[in-house]
Amino acid sequence: MRHDLALHSIFNYVKPRDLYNCALANVEWNQYATLKLWRIPKFGTSSTTALQSFQSFLKVLPHIAREQTRLCVISIDVSKVQETLYDTVDESWLGIVVLQCPNLRELIIRDVSFLSTISIRKLCYMKASNNFIEKLDLTGAKSITESTMKSLVQNFPELKRIILDNCSGVTDGSISQIAYFCHNLEYVDLANSRSSLTDVGIFALAKFVKQRLRGIDLTASMKITDNAIIAMTTHCTKLVSMNFSHCALITIQGLEKLVISNKDTLEHLIIHNMKSIPALTYPFFDLLTNYCPQLATLSFTFTSITDIKINLLIDIFSKFQHLRELILYCVPEHTPNLFLWKLIEKCETLKEVKIYRTSYESDFILGGYAKVIETEYEGINQQAVNNFNNSHPNGPKINLLLLEE
Questions:
Q1: Which residue has the higher pLDDT, 4 or 168?
Q2: InterPro entries per the record (predicted)?
Q3: Which end of the chain lies in a sparser environment, N or C, as judged by fewer CB atoms within 10 Å?
Protein backbone atom coordinates (compact mmCIF):
# COMPACT_ATOMS: atom_id res chain seq x y z
CA MET A 1 0.00 0.00 0.00
CA ARG A 2 2.80 2.43 0.91
CA HIS A 3 4.60 1.50 -2.30
CA ASP A 4 1.48 2.32 -4.33
CA LEU A 5 1.01 5.67 -2.59
CA ALA A 6 4.67 6.58 -3.10
CA LEU A 7 4.56 5.67 -6.78
CA HIS A 8 1.32 7.58 -7.23
CA SER A 9 2.85 10.69 -5.63
CA ILE A 10 6.03 10.48 -7.68
CA PHE A 11 4.14 10.27 -10.97
CA ASN A 12 2.42 13.57 -10.13
CA TYR A 13 5.74 15.33 -10.78
CA VAL A 14 6.72 13.51 -13.97
CA LYS A 15 6.36 15.46 -17.23
CA PRO A 16 4.03 14.02 -19.92
CA ARG A 17 6.91 13.28 -22.30
CA ASP A 18 8.69 11.25 -19.59
CA LEU A 19 5.46 9.45 -18.71
CA TYR A 20 5.49 7.83 -22.16
CA ASN A 21 8.89 6.29 -21.35
CA CYS A 22 7.70 5.21 -17.90
CA ALA A 23 4.78 3.38 -19.49
CA LEU A 24 7.27 1.08 -21.27
CA ALA A 25 9.04 -0.01 -18.07
CA ASN A 26 6.63 -2.67 -16.78
CA VAL A 27 2.95 -3.43 -16.30
CA GLU A 28 2.64 -1.60 -12.97
CA TRP A 29 4.29 1.57 -14.23
CA ASN A 30 2.22 1.38 -17.40
CA GLN A 31 -0.97 1.49 -15.36
CA TYR A 32 0.11 4.55 -13.37
CA ALA A 33 1.46 6.38 -16.42
CA THR A 34 -1.71 5.66 -18.43
CA LEU A 35 -3.88 6.97 -15.61
CA LYS A 36 -1.89 10.20 -15.42
CA LEU A 37 -1.81 10.74 -19.18
CA TRP A 38 -5.46 10.01 -19.83
CA ARG A 39 -7.15 11.29 -16.68
CA ILE A 40 -7.08 14.90 -17.93
CA PRO A 41 -5.73 14.90 -21.52
CA LYS A 42 -3.55 17.88 -22.47
CA PHE A 43 -3.88 19.08 -26.05
CA GLY A 44 -0.86 20.73 -27.62
CA THR A 45 2.86 20.14 -27.16
CA SER A 46 6.08 21.82 -28.23
CA SER A 47 5.89 19.98 -31.55
CA THR A 48 2.13 19.85 -32.22
CA THR A 49 -0.70 22.36 -31.98
CA ALA A 50 -3.71 21.88 -29.72
CA LEU A 51 -5.84 21.27 -32.82
CA GLN A 52 -3.53 18.51 -34.12
CA SER A 53 -3.41 16.85 -30.69
CA PHE A 54 -7.19 16.91 -30.38
CA GLN A 55 -7.66 15.48 -33.89
CA SER A 56 -5.32 12.60 -33.01
CA PHE A 57 -7.21 12.08 -29.77
CA LEU A 58 -10.51 11.74 -31.67
CA LYS A 59 -8.98 9.12 -33.98
CA VAL A 60 -7.42 7.11 -31.16
CA LEU A 61 -10.52 6.98 -28.93
CA PRO A 62 -12.83 4.74 -31.01
CA HIS A 63 -10.28 2.58 -32.83
CA ILE A 64 -7.06 2.22 -30.80
CA ALA A 65 -7.60 3.06 -27.12
CA ARG A 66 -8.51 0.14 -24.87
CA GLU A 67 -11.69 0.29 -22.81
CA GLN A 68 -9.65 0.38 -19.61
CA THR A 69 -7.75 3.38 -20.96
CA ARG A 70 -10.90 5.24 -22.00
CA LEU A 71 -12.36 4.71 -18.54
CA CYS A 72 -9.50 6.79 -17.12
CA VAL A 73 -10.71 10.00 -18.78
CA ILE A 74 -12.62 12.19 -16.30
CA SER A 75 -12.11 15.71 -17.68
CA ILE A 76 -11.75 17.15 -21.18
CA ASP A 77 -10.95 20.81 -21.85
CA VAL A 78 -10.94 21.88 -25.50
CA SER A 79 -10.71 25.63 -24.81
CA LYS A 80 -7.24 25.89 -26.38
CA VAL A 81 -8.24 24.06 -29.53
CA GLN A 82 -8.81 26.55 -32.34
CA GLU A 83 -9.78 25.73 -35.91
CA THR A 84 -7.91 27.28 -38.83
CA LEU A 85 -9.00 28.19 -42.34
CA TYR A 86 -7.63 24.91 -43.71
CA ASP A 87 -7.91 22.58 -40.74
CA THR A 88 -11.12 21.89 -38.82
CA VAL A 89 -12.55 19.56 -36.20
CA ASP A 90 -14.78 16.64 -37.21
CA GLU A 91 -18.44 17.57 -36.69
CA SER A 92 -18.96 14.29 -34.78
CA TRP A 93 -16.36 15.24 -32.15
CA LEU A 94 -18.86 15.82 -29.32
CA GLY A 95 -20.58 12.48 -29.81
CA ILE A 96 -17.23 10.67 -30.01
CA VAL A 97 -15.97 12.24 -26.77
CA VAL A 98 -19.17 11.58 -24.80
CA LEU A 99 -19.70 8.05 -26.16
CA GLN A 100 -16.10 6.86 -25.87
CA CYS A 101 -15.38 8.33 -22.40
CA PRO A 102 -18.09 6.80 -20.19
CA ASN A 103 -16.54 8.06 -16.93
CA LEU A 104 -16.26 11.67 -18.09
CA ARG A 105 -17.06 14.10 -15.27
CA GLU A 106 -16.17 17.50 -16.74
CA LEU A 107 -16.59 18.87 -20.26
CA ILE A 108 -15.15 22.33 -20.82
CA ILE A 109 -15.99 23.87 -24.21
CA ARG A 110 -15.05 27.49 -23.62
CA ASP A 111 -14.83 29.99 -26.50
CA VAL A 112 -14.58 27.45 -29.32
CA SER A 113 -16.02 27.80 -32.81
CA PHE A 114 -16.60 24.10 -33.50
CA LEU A 115 -19.44 23.69 -30.98
CA SER A 116 -22.24 23.99 -33.50
CA THR A 117 -25.84 22.99 -34.01
CA ILE A 118 -24.64 20.13 -36.24
CA SER A 119 -22.25 18.72 -33.63
CA ILE A 120 -25.02 18.78 -31.01
CA ARG A 121 -27.50 17.13 -33.37
CA LYS A 122 -24.99 14.37 -34.14
CA LEU A 123 -24.52 13.84 -30.42
CA CYS A 124 -28.27 13.35 -30.02
CA TYR A 125 -28.42 11.12 -33.12
CA MET A 126 -25.69 8.88 -31.67
CA LYS A 127 -27.69 8.73 -28.41
CA ALA A 128 -24.45 9.36 -26.57
CA SER A 129 -25.92 10.41 -23.24
CA ASN A 130 -23.67 10.46 -20.20
CA ASN A 131 -24.96 9.98 -16.67
CA PHE A 132 -21.63 10.89 -15.06
CA ILE A 133 -20.90 14.38 -16.43
CA GLU A 134 -21.29 16.82 -13.55
CA LYS A 135 -19.79 20.00 -15.01
CA LEU A 136 -20.50 21.57 -18.40
CA ASP A 137 -18.82 24.85 -19.38
CA LEU A 138 -20.18 26.53 -22.52
CA THR A 139 -18.73 29.99 -21.92
CA GLY A 140 -18.74 32.13 -25.05
CA ALA A 141 -20.67 29.63 -27.20
CA LYS A 142 -22.08 31.78 -30.03
CA SER A 143 -23.59 29.15 -32.31
CA ILE A 144 -26.11 27.56 -29.96
CA THR A 145 -29.81 28.20 -30.36
CA GLU A 146 -32.53 27.70 -27.78
CA SER A 147 -33.65 24.40 -29.36
CA THR A 148 -30.13 22.94 -29.55
CA MET A 149 -29.48 23.95 -25.94
CA LYS A 150 -32.61 22.05 -24.91
CA SER A 151 -31.46 18.99 -26.86
CA LEU A 152 -27.94 19.18 -25.44
CA VAL A 153 -28.83 19.19 -21.74
CA GLN A 154 -31.07 16.14 -22.10
CA ASN A 155 -27.89 14.10 -22.67
CA PHE A 156 -26.44 15.12 -19.29
CA PRO A 157 -29.15 14.54 -16.66
CA GLU A 158 -26.71 14.41 -13.72
CA LEU A 159 -25.23 17.88 -14.19
CA LYS A 160 -24.29 19.70 -10.99
CA ARG A 161 -22.55 22.75 -12.49
CA ILE A 162 -23.44 24.47 -15.75
CA ILE A 163 -21.64 27.61 -16.94
CA LEU A 164 -23.39 29.59 -19.67
CA ASP A 165 -21.51 32.88 -19.43
CA ASN A 166 -22.13 34.91 -22.61
CA CYS A 167 -23.77 31.90 -24.27
CA SER A 168 -26.18 32.53 -27.15
CA GLY A 169 -28.60 29.75 -26.20
CA VAL A 170 -29.66 31.22 -22.85
CA THR A 171 -33.39 31.97 -22.86
CA ASP A 172 -36.29 31.43 -20.49
CA GLY A 173 -37.20 28.28 -22.42
CA SER A 174 -33.74 26.71 -22.35
CA ILE A 175 -33.19 27.51 -18.66
CA SER A 176 -36.59 26.01 -17.82
CA GLN A 177 -35.60 22.85 -19.72
CA ILE A 178 -32.27 22.66 -17.88
CA ALA A 179 -34.00 23.06 -14.52
CA TYR A 180 -36.55 20.37 -15.42
CA PHE A 181 -34.08 17.72 -16.66
CA CYS A 182 -31.11 18.37 -14.37
CA HIS A 183 -32.48 17.87 -10.86
CA ASN A 184 -29.06 17.80 -9.18
CA LEU A 185 -27.94 21.27 -10.23
CA GLU A 186 -25.90 23.03 -7.56
CA TYR A 187 -24.35 25.95 -9.46
CA VAL A 188 -25.70 27.90 -12.44
CA ASP A 189 -23.76 30.65 -14.21
CA LEU A 190 -26.01 32.78 -16.42
CA ALA A 191 -23.71 35.80 -16.60
CA ASN A 192 -24.07 38.26 -19.49
CA SER A 193 -27.41 36.90 -20.63
CA ARG A 194 -28.38 40.57 -21.05
CA SER A 195 -32.04 40.84 -22.13
CA SER A 196 -32.56 37.23 -23.28
CA LEU A 197 -33.31 36.01 -19.74
CA THR A 198 -36.25 37.23 -17.66
CA ASP A 199 -37.89 36.38 -14.35
CA VAL A 200 -39.66 33.42 -16.00
CA GLY A 201 -36.41 31.46 -16.34
CA ILE A 202 -35.45 32.12 -12.71
CA PHE A 203 -38.97 31.07 -11.58
CA ALA A 204 -38.40 27.67 -13.25
CA LEU A 205 -34.94 27.38 -11.74
CA ALA A 206 -36.28 28.10 -8.26
CA LYS A 207 -39.24 25.75 -8.69
CA PHE A 208 -37.43 22.67 -9.99
CA VAL A 209 -33.95 22.92 -8.43
CA LYS A 210 -35.06 24.35 -5.06
CA GLN A 211 -32.90 23.48 -2.05
CA ARG A 212 -30.14 21.83 -4.07
CA LEU A 213 -29.01 25.12 -5.61
CA ARG A 214 -25.83 26.40 -3.94
CA GLY A 215 -24.69 29.17 -6.29
CA ILE A 216 -26.04 31.46 -9.00
CA ASP A 217 -24.38 34.09 -11.19
CA LEU A 218 -26.72 36.61 -12.82
CA THR A 219 -24.10 39.19 -13.83
CA ALA A 220 -25.51 41.74 -16.29
CA SER A 221 -28.96 40.12 -16.43
CA MET A 222 -30.85 43.27 -17.35
CA LYS A 223 -34.41 41.95 -17.07
CA ILE A 224 -34.19 40.13 -13.73
CA THR A 225 -36.30 41.92 -11.11
CA ASP A 226 -37.19 41.56 -7.44
CA ASN A 227 -39.98 39.14 -8.43
CA ALA A 228 -37.39 36.51 -9.35
CA ILE A 229 -35.41 37.25 -6.20
CA ILE A 230 -38.50 36.79 -4.03
CA ALA A 231 -39.17 33.41 -5.72
CA MET A 232 -35.63 32.39 -4.79
CA THR A 233 -36.16 33.45 -1.18
CA THR A 234 -39.02 30.95 -1.01
CA HIS A 235 -37.42 27.95 -2.74
CA CYS A 236 -33.63 28.47 -2.59
CA THR A 237 -32.58 28.87 1.02
CA LYS A 238 -29.17 27.17 0.97
CA LEU A 239 -27.30 29.44 -1.41
CA VAL A 240 -23.56 29.75 -0.76
CA SER A 241 -22.69 32.10 -3.63
CA MET A 242 -24.62 34.98 -5.24
CA ASN A 243 -23.45 37.31 -8.01
CA PHE A 244 -25.80 40.12 -9.03
CA SER A 245 -23.21 42.58 -10.34
CA HIS A 246 -24.39 44.91 -13.13
CA CYS A 247 -28.03 43.86 -12.65
CA ALA A 248 -30.22 46.87 -13.38
CA LEU A 249 -33.58 46.07 -11.75
CA ILE A 250 -32.80 44.28 -8.46
CA THR A 251 -33.34 46.60 -5.48
CA ILE A 252 -31.96 46.66 -1.95
CA GLN A 253 -35.28 45.32 -0.60
CA GLY A 254 -35.10 42.17 -2.74
CA LEU A 255 -31.43 41.69 -1.94
CA GLU A 256 -32.04 41.95 1.82
CA LYS A 257 -34.81 39.34 1.68
CA LEU A 258 -32.58 36.90 -0.21
CA VAL A 259 -29.70 37.43 2.21
CA ILE A 260 -31.96 36.77 5.20
CA SER A 261 -33.43 33.61 3.65
CA ASN A 262 -29.89 32.25 3.11
CA LYS A 263 -28.41 33.54 6.36
CA ASP A 264 -27.02 30.16 7.45
CA THR A 265 -25.13 29.34 4.25
CA LEU A 266 -24.18 32.53 2.36
CA GLU A 267 -20.39 32.86 1.94
CA HIS A 268 -19.85 34.82 -1.29
CA LEU A 269 -21.80 37.99 -2.16
CA ILE A 270 -20.98 40.01 -5.31
CA ILE A 271 -23.13 43.15 -5.65
CA HIS A 272 -21.06 45.84 -7.36
CA ASN A 273 -22.41 48.17 -10.07
CA MET A 274 -26.09 47.50 -9.42
CA LYS A 275 -28.00 50.35 -11.03
CA SER A 276 -31.04 50.14 -8.74
CA ILE A 277 -28.84 50.20 -5.63
CA PRO A 278 -26.94 53.50 -5.90
CA ALA A 279 -26.20 53.52 -2.17
CA LEU A 280 -25.53 50.81 0.44
CA THR A 281 -26.67 51.88 3.89
CA TYR A 282 -25.50 51.11 7.39
CA PRO A 283 -28.57 48.90 8.09
CA PHE A 284 -27.64 46.67 5.13
CA PHE A 285 -24.08 46.11 6.33
CA ASP A 286 -25.39 45.59 9.85
CA LEU A 287 -27.73 42.94 8.46
CA LEU A 288 -24.78 41.18 6.80
CA THR A 289 -22.73 41.07 10.00
CA ASN A 290 -25.68 39.83 12.07
CA TYR A 291 -27.21 37.31 9.65
CA CYS A 292 -24.17 36.13 7.68
CA PRO A 293 -21.24 35.77 10.08
CA GLN A 294 -19.70 33.13 7.76
CA LEU A 295 -19.38 35.57 4.81
CA ALA A 296 -15.98 35.00 3.15
CA THR A 297 -16.15 37.16 -0.01
CA LEU A 298 -17.75 40.58 -0.42
CA SER A 299 -17.72 42.82 -3.48
CA PHE A 300 -19.40 46.22 -3.79
CA THR A 301 -19.05 49.65 -5.41
CA PHE A 302 -16.97 51.92 -3.19
CA THR A 303 -18.89 55.07 -4.13
CA SER A 304 -22.11 53.47 -2.86
CA ILE A 305 -20.95 53.74 0.79
CA THR A 306 -20.09 57.46 0.84
CA ASP A 307 -23.15 58.26 2.96
CA ILE A 308 -21.97 56.05 5.84
CA LYS A 309 -19.86 57.78 8.48
CA ILE A 310 -16.24 56.64 8.49
CA ASN A 311 -16.21 55.48 12.11
CA LEU A 312 -19.40 53.46 11.61
CA LEU A 313 -18.02 51.83 8.46
CA ILE A 314 -14.78 50.85 10.20
CA ASP A 315 -16.79 49.46 13.10
CA ILE A 316 -18.90 47.37 10.69
CA PHE A 317 -15.88 45.67 9.12
CA SER A 318 -14.44 44.82 12.52
CA LYS A 319 -17.52 42.60 13.02
CA PHE A 320 -16.81 40.35 10.02
CA GLN A 321 -15.24 37.26 11.56
CA HIS A 322 -14.57 35.17 8.44
CA LEU A 323 -14.21 37.68 5.59
CA ARG A 324 -11.18 36.63 3.51
CA GLU A 325 -11.62 38.51 0.23
CA LEU A 326 -12.79 42.10 -0.21
CA ILE A 327 -13.33 43.59 -3.68
CA LEU A 328 -13.91 47.34 -4.05
CA TYR A 329 -15.03 48.80 -7.37
CA CYS A 330 -14.85 52.37 -8.68
CA VAL A 331 -12.51 53.77 -6.03
CA PRO A 332 -12.20 57.47 -7.03
CA GLU A 333 -9.08 59.57 -7.26
CA HIS A 334 -7.71 61.10 -4.04
CA THR A 335 -9.53 58.58 -1.79
CA PRO A 336 -7.56 58.88 1.49
CA ASN A 337 -5.43 55.75 1.77
CA LEU A 338 -5.32 56.02 5.58
CA PHE A 339 -9.07 55.43 5.72
CA LEU A 340 -8.83 52.31 3.54
CA TRP A 341 -5.87 50.95 5.49
CA LYS A 342 -7.81 51.28 8.77
CA LEU A 343 -10.82 49.64 7.17
CA ILE A 344 -8.71 46.70 5.99
CA GLU A 345 -6.74 46.31 9.20
CA LYS A 346 -9.91 46.17 11.29
CA CYS A 347 -10.96 43.02 9.48
CA GLU A 348 -8.28 40.68 10.79
CA THR A 349 -9.33 37.66 8.73
CA LEU A 350 -8.77 39.33 5.33
CA LYS A 351 -6.27 37.61 3.04
CA GLU A 352 -6.77 39.51 -0.22
CA VAL A 353 -8.12 42.93 -1.22
CA LYS A 354 -8.74 43.97 -4.82
CA ILE A 355 -9.22 47.67 -5.50
CA TYR A 356 -10.59 48.51 -8.94
CA ARG A 357 -10.04 52.19 -9.50
CA THR A 358 -11.28 54.55 -12.19
CA SER A 359 -8.87 56.28 -14.59
CA TYR A 360 -7.37 59.22 -12.72
CA GLU A 361 -6.47 62.61 -14.12
CA SER A 362 -3.00 62.12 -12.67
CA ASP A 363 -2.60 59.05 -14.91
CA PHE A 364 -2.90 61.00 -18.13
CA ILE A 365 0.65 61.54 -19.29
CA LEU A 366 1.59 62.31 -22.89
CA GLY A 367 -1.73 61.08 -24.23
CA GLY A 368 -1.78 57.68 -22.53
CA TYR A 369 -2.57 56.14 -19.16
CA ALA A 370 0.26 55.06 -16.90
CA LYS A 371 0.56 53.86 -13.31
CA VAL A 372 -0.86 56.10 -10.60
CA ILE A 373 1.72 58.59 -9.41
CA GLU A 374 2.16 60.15 -5.99
CA THR A 375 -0.08 63.13 -5.24
CA GLU A 376 -0.21 65.65 -2.45
CA TYR A 377 -3.55 64.21 -1.33
CA GLU A 378 -2.02 60.91 -0.19
CA GLY A 379 -4.67 59.05 -2.12
CA ILE A 380 -4.76 55.48 -3.34
CA ASN A 381 -1.84 54.90 -5.68
CA GLN A 382 0.53 52.11 -6.58
CA GLN A 383 3.29 53.38 -4.36
CA ALA A 384 0.97 53.49 -1.33
CA VAL A 385 -0.22 49.95 -2.07
CA ASN A 386 3.36 48.70 -2.38
CA ASN A 387 4.27 50.33 0.93
CA PHE A 388 1.28 48.69 2.63
CA ASN A 389 2.12 45.24 1.23
CA ASN A 390 5.76 45.57 2.28
CA SER A 391 4.78 46.60 5.80
CA HIS A 392 2.26 43.75 6.09
CA PRO A 393 4.14 40.62 4.89
CA ASN A 394 1.54 38.36 6.51
CA GLY A 395 -1.32 40.00 4.64
CA PRO A 396 -3.76 41.00 3.56
CA LYS A 397 -2.38 41.28 0.03
CA ILE A 398 -3.68 44.37 -1.79
CA ASN A 399 -3.94 44.61 -5.58
CA LEU A 400 -4.67 47.92 -7.31
CA LEU A 401 -6.21 47.47 -10.76
CA LEU A 402 -7.75 49.62 -13.46
CA LEU A 403 -11.38 48.81 -14.24
CA GLU A 404 -10.32 47.97 -17.81
CA GLU A 405 -8.13 45.19 -16.40
A1: 168
A2: FBXL15_LRR, Leu-rich_rpt_Cys-con_subtyp, LRR_dom_sf
A3: N
